[in-house]
């Protein structure tokens, strides 16, 4: 049959993890921890399974989890969403993003995103009949040029997708970025999809700025998050979105036929975890700062130029001093010959991105990071 996504292949994450396995390389490519999540969370999952919480959860999510998310949002961002009307639990952030895009984007609508951008946004927009409009951000700061942004706006603009802390650049949005976004769209009917899956992995003094802390913007915004990153459990695939009632109602119409509902005992366990151990996510910046600093330190004698990292569990390294290969070829070579797998940046960009940058995941034990860095210091 004629493909609806003819240009799309297997994701870079699947490709690089497979190549890493094939060559027995240390895998700093796909973003997932090589250590386990909290014991308490695991015990609560076993508990709820043993108590028979094994049938369908409510379509919108288990009430206990939605309430815990509402309270966490109030504590962190000063806004208490209505847990019945404004919070929907989804199968990872991926489903929330897909459901939001499907609910909002009509054929011919334009969607603005900032490249390098996470790979799941564009296919969802294309399947909905929308058209991507991309603004490429430049290293090392990857800041949005708001003059340039204005030129992308048109009467057909429907949605802006942002991601902070940002995968893959490891930069974060500042309050001034949200102010500039609001100024640009205030008088237009444009919605905002804010991917905040790394909300608890932010290293700046100010901390993470959520769209939910922006009183005007949040009236038009869908904030998306995921427990996979926060609790070191990427395989659990439980995420959620927070949006005003009318927007949530539309997203739920998609969600109820995409998955209907999400794994019941995992939701109940996550609700217990959020209530019992809020220090887990409060301590996450320090936890990941130590790993980031370990990798940066271990690479200090290498020929890589390390870029600043203010959020996420990814570090960018410039290999201009090492090789003239393009980034995709360099990552293949690195995996096959040096024994370390990384992600090339250009795959997150629709337009040419002629920089020599790779992404290294530091959600790893220190022994893994040091072993990888030893190899990277040899080249
Ligand atoms: N958005 C970004 C920016 C991500 O990095 C990821 C996953 N790594 C996701 C969304 C998807 O999250 P989930 O695994 O919860 O579907
Ligand atoms: N988001 C993860 C990353 O950036 C990968 C998720 C996936 O494999 N789809 O590495």
TrEMBL record:
One of its GO terms (cellular component) is cytoplasm. Keywords: Aminotransferase, Pyridoxal phosphate, Transferase. The keyword NAD does not apply. The keyword Transferase applies. Residues 25-375 form the Aminotransferase class I/classII large domain. Gene3D superfamilies: Aspartate Aminotransferase, domain 1, Type I PLP-dependent aspartate aminotransferase-like (Major domain). InterPro entries: Aminotransferase_I/II_large, Kynurenine-oxoglutarate_AT, PyrdxlP-dep_Trfase, PyrdxlP-dep_Trfase_major, PyrdxlP-dep_Trfase_small. One of its GO terms (molecular function) is kynurenine-oxoglutarate transaminase activity. Its cofactor is pyridoxal 5'-phosphate. Belongs to the class-I pyridoxal-phosphate-dependent aminotransferase family. NCBIfam families: PRK09082.1. This is Pyridoxal phosphate-dependent aminotransferase.
């Amino acid at each position: 049959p004629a493909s609806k996504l003819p240009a799309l292949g297997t994701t870079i994450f699947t490709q690089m993890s497979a190549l890493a396995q094939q060559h027995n390389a240390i895998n700093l490519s796909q973003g997932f921890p090589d250590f386990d999540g909290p014991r308490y969370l695991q015990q609560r999952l076993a508990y709820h399974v043993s108590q028979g919480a094994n049938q369908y959860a409510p379509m919108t999510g288990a009430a206990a989890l939605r309430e815990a998310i509402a309270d966490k949002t109030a504590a962190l961002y000063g806004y208490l969403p209505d847990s019945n009307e404004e919070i929907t639990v989804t199968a990872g952030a991926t489903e929330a993003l897909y459901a939001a895009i499907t609910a909002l984007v009509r054929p011919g609508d334009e969607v603005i995103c900032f490249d390098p951008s996470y790979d799941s946004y564009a296919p969802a927009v294309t399947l909905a009949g929308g058209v991507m409009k991309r603004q490429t951000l430049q290293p090392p700061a990857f800041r949005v040029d708001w003059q340039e942004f204005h030129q992308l706006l048109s009467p057909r603009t429907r949605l802006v997708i942002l991601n902070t802390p940002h995968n893959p650049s490891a930069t974060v949005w500042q309050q001034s970025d949200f102010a500039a976004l609001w100024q640009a769209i205030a008088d237009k009917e444009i919605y905002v999809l804010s991917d905040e899956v790394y909300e608890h992995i932010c290293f700046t003094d100010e901390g993470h700025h959520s769209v939910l802390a922006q009183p005007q913007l949040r009236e038009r915004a869908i904030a998306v998050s995921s427990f996979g990153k926060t609790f070191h459990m990427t395989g659990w695939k439980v995420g959620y979105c927070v949006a005003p009632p009318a927007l949530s109602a539309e997203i739920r119409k998609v969600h109820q036929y995409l998955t209907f509902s999400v794994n019941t005992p995992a939701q109940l366990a996550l609700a217990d975890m959020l209530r019992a151990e809020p220090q887990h996510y409060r301590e996450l910046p320090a936890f990941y700062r130590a790993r980031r600093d370990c990798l940066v330190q271990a690479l200090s004698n290498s020929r890589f130029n390390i870029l600043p990292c203010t959020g996420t569990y990814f570090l960018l390294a410039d290999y201009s001093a090492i090789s003239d290969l393009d980034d995709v070829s360099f990552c293949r070579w690195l995996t096959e010959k040096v024994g370390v797998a990384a992600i090339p940046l250009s795959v997150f960009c629709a337009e040419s991105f002629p920089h020599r940058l790779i992404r290294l995941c530091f959600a790893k034990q220190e022994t893994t990071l040091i072993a990888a860095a030893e190899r990277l210091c040899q080249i």
